[in-house]
Amino acid sequence: MFKHLSAAFLTIPLLALFLPAVGEASRLDWNQTEARIELKPDEEEARAEFVVTNKGDETVRIARVKTSCGCTSSILNQKIIKPGESTTITATFNKGKRQGLNHNKLEVFLDDQADAVAILQMIVQVPKLVDAQPQIVYWNSSTSRTERHIQIKLDKRYVNEITSIEYDHATLTITAEPDPDGRADRILHILPKSFETQIRETVRIHARGADGIKAEARLHIFVQP
């Protein structure tokens, strides 16, 4: 009986410590928890602002903001939020060489809480001005010695013309033609000139747009005898 009562009395103060934190967390009001941004070709970074307001009766303190990727950083306007006040978390995404959809997460922690009080999503679309699929083609002893076909798609908002295709003419034969199905802007047919020699080559596809925008895609070619 004594042991049973002791366990019960120990549980009550633990709950008392835990419940106020949950209550205060539930009184934080965010202007948004997800930001979707599409970068333009000349933009190197994207920014999103997440504003949080303390709707509770107690002052809270943001201890830290943890980002899921080194490409994303955050700046906290102020850590201590009094009742009725707000603070802003500014998230910055650096493009680097990234393309396509980039999904970044920011976890917000209050003092003395192991779990995040909020998870903020920053979703950035970096347009692929020249999209080549597949980007890697290869031949080895177990594959057929036939042409590989690459679909080239241009983002017509920014580029509309393939200006050149650079490759080593001594090792590869490449021909280009319009896609008969209309799903791509060009189809490349690639064939090594020899299957008896190891080949590691990069093919560069250059394109440009009406506003002087230039873009490049790369294909990686491998032959393993």
Summarize the structure in short.
With 225 residues, the chain is mainly β.
Structure, explained:
- A 5-stranded mixed beta sheet has the order 2-9-8-4-6, with no helix packed on it. A 4-stranded antiparallel beta sheet has the order 1-3-7-5. The chain has a 4-stranded antiparallel beta sheet with strand order 10-12-15-14, with no helix packed on it.
- It folds into 2 domains: 29-126, Immunoglobulin-like, CATH 2.60.40.10; 130-223, Immunoglobulin-like (Sandwich).
- Residues 1-23 have low confidence and may be disordered.
- It is built from 1 helix and 17 strands.
- With 225 residues, the chain is mainly beta.
Strand-helix topology:
Layout: H1 2-26, E1 28-30, E2 34-38, E3 45-54, E4 60-67, E5 72-76, E6 80-81, E7 86-94, E8 100-110, E9 118-126, E10 130-133, E11 136-139, E12 148-154, E13 161-166, E14 172-177, E15 186-192, E16 199-208, E17 214-223
| Rg estimate, integer Å | 27 Å
CATH superfamily membership of the largest domain: Immunoglobulins
Quote the CATH topology of the largest domain.
Answer: Immunoglobulin-like
CATH uppermost class of the largest domain = Mainly Beta
Contiguous low-pLDDT stretches (5 residues minimum) are 1-23
Total individual domains:
2
Total strand segments:
17
- Strands of the widest sheet, in order across it, are 2-9-8-4-6
Content of β-strand: over 45%
Q: What's the mean pLDDT score? A: 88
Q: Give, in order, the helices and strands.
A: HEEEEEEEEEEEEEEEEE
**Terminal-residue CA separation:** 79 Å
Name the structural class. mainly beta
